[in-house]
Amino acid sequence: MFMLRRIKFLLDITHNRDIMRRYVVVNGFDGALTMLGLIIGFIVSEADDLSVIISVCLGAAIALGMSGLSSAYISESAERKHALGKLEQAMISDLRESAHGDASRWVPLLTALVNGLSPLLISLLILSPIALSIAGVPLPFSPLYSAIVIALLLIFLLGVFLGSIAQISWLRSGLQTLFVAIVTVILIYLIAGS
Amino acid sequence: MVYVKRIVLDVLKPHQPNTLEFSQRIAGVGIDYRVHLIVLEVDENTETVQIEITANTIDFAAVQAVIKDLGGSLHSIDEVEVCNEAEIQNEVEAD
Questions:
Q1: What is the Cα–Cα distance from A53 to A31, expressed in whole angstroms?
Q2: Backbone phi, psi, residue B38, to 5°
Q3: Min CA distance, A97 vs chain B (Å)?
Q4: Is B41 helix (H, G, I), strand (E, B) or coil?
Q5: Is the CB of A93 less than 8 angstroms away from the CB of B46?
Q6: How far is CA A191 from each of CA A62, A81, A152, A185, A187, rounded to the nearest angstrom?
Q7: Are B63 and B53 a contacting pair, CB within 8 Å?
Q8: Contact check, Cβ <8 Å, B45/A14
Q9: Does residue A139 belong to the interface with chain B, where contact is any CB pair within 8 Å?
Q10: Is the bond preceding B17 in cis, omega lying within 30 degrees of 0?
């Protein structure tokens, strides 16, 4: 409980909550669209070996996660160090032992975790029908089409989440992100399918 | 026994945490702590505040630790009110 309160406090004093929320959506959207693109690519190329499909998709998901983790840590770490240095200059004192010092160490790590886990978890959710099918669980639809439905649903939900932040119509916002996903699918079919 | 009842501090603090959170954290040092904070000056990254703390027994070291944890810097102790509780007790009994 104390730990959670401290994390909330550190995020508040650095105004990092908004940045993390943005990372969840942006990178989650990246993860979902990448998985959608890969699966459509497999359908277009008529690949039917599910173990190959899941390996390729997992590889991409892990790479997206690692990319999000490392890029956010490096950039946030530099930003927080810069902000701490500026504050120390203004305060004419060493703030390493203060909450601001803790924030410069922990906030980049937390931001990196959010940035890395968001695309990874969304990708894993999208890949779950393929994993279930490999494990022998019977599905009502083909695993690849089930994965596409989950991807579209998650993309729609990310839009709904954005709509609730911006306090605009959740349906309109959800349909906007869904539109982007559908345009992506059409483009893949047009370019890769020909 | 001599107790510190009231202190007025001159503190330089960053804008974050804000004055409300800053006062609440100081008041959180003890159950009967009363904090009165006045912003004296606001700069680009910092603000100078005057903090008046009243309590039955002020734990000055704990107050100082909280101010430091919040990134503040204690510039001066402007006013102090201390009280010898035993003397008061004796005076009451003498009356």
A1: 16
A2: -125, 130
A3: 7
A4: strand
A5: no
A6: 26, 45, 20, 10, 6
A7: yes
A8: no
A9: no
A10: yes
Which segments of B27-85 are extended strands (E)?
34-42, 46-54, 73-84
ipTM of the complex, rounded to two decimals: 0.77
Using an 8 Å Cβ cutoff, are A131 and A147 in contact?
no
Amino acid at A117: L
- Rounded to an integer, what distance in angstroms lies between the CA atom of residue A115 and that of residue A113? 5
- Do B17 and A92 count as a contact with CB atoms less than 8 A apart? no
Nearest to A193 by CA among A86, A37, A28, A22: A37
Residue A98 is nearest to which of B43, B45, B69, comparing CB atoms? B69
- Separation CA A25–CA B87 (nearest Å): 65
Could you read off the pLDDT tens digit of each residue along chain A, which spans 194 residues?
778 888 888 988 888 888 888 889 989 999 999 999 999 999 998 888 999 999 999 999 999 999 999 999 999 999 999 999 999 999 988 998 899 999 999 999 999 999 999 999 999 999 999 999 999 998 888 999 999 999 999 999 999 998 888 888 999 999 999 999 999 999 998 988 77
Alpha carbons A154 and A171: distance in angstroms, whole number:
14
Q: Provide, as residue numbers in chain B, all residues whose Cβ is less than 8 Å from the Cβ of A15.
A: 16
The answer to whether B43 contacts A92, with C-beta atoms less than 8 Å apart, is no
A99/B69 touch (CB, cutoff 8 Å), yes or no: yes
